[in-house]
């Protein structure tokens, strides 16, 4: 196992992390902007009003995207990591 293979596996792992985190981060961003606009329009500055909708939306996004994340991690492990371990 040489440096190029290690860096390739690391790059693939980092991209997998980006793909796994992006639906949750985008959900939090969209819900945060919508709730922020609603708070600005109604002049209601309640702290729980920003936290609870984000939490619920992120839980729903996590449940919807967990199979995608599991398939992505399994493919990464099968295609990149196991061949490196077996080749070492």
TrEMBL record:
Lineage of the organism: Bacteria, Pseudomonadati, Pseudomonadota, Alphaproteobacteria, Parvularculales
Membrane topology of the entry: Multi-pass membrane protein
CC terms in the record's Gene Ontology section: plasma membrane
Name recorded for this polypeptide: Flagellar biosynthetic protein FliQ
Organism (species): Amphiplicatus metriothermophilus
Subcellular location: Cell membrane
Keyword tags: Cell membrane, Cell projection, Cilium, Flagellum, Membrane, Transmembrane, Transmembrane helix
GO biological process, one term: protein secretion
Record-linked InterPro entries: Bac_export_3
UniProt cross-references to Pfam families, sorted A to Z: Bac_export_3
Family: Belongs to the FliQ/MopD/SpaQ family.
Residue spans crossing the bilayer: 12-35, 55-77
Taxonomic superkingdom: Bacteria
């Amino acid at each position: 196992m040489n440096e190029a293979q290690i860096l390739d596996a690391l790059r693939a792992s980092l991209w997998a992390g980006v793909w796994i985190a992006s639906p949750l981060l985008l959900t939090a961003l969209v819900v945060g902007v919508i709730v922020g606009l609603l708070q600005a329009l109604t002049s209601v500055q309640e702290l729980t009003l920003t936290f609870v909708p984000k939490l619920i939306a992120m839980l729903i996004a996590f449940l919807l995207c967990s199979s995608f994340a599991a398939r992505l991690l399994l493919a990464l492990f099968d295609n990149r990591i196991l061949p490196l371990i077996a080749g070492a």
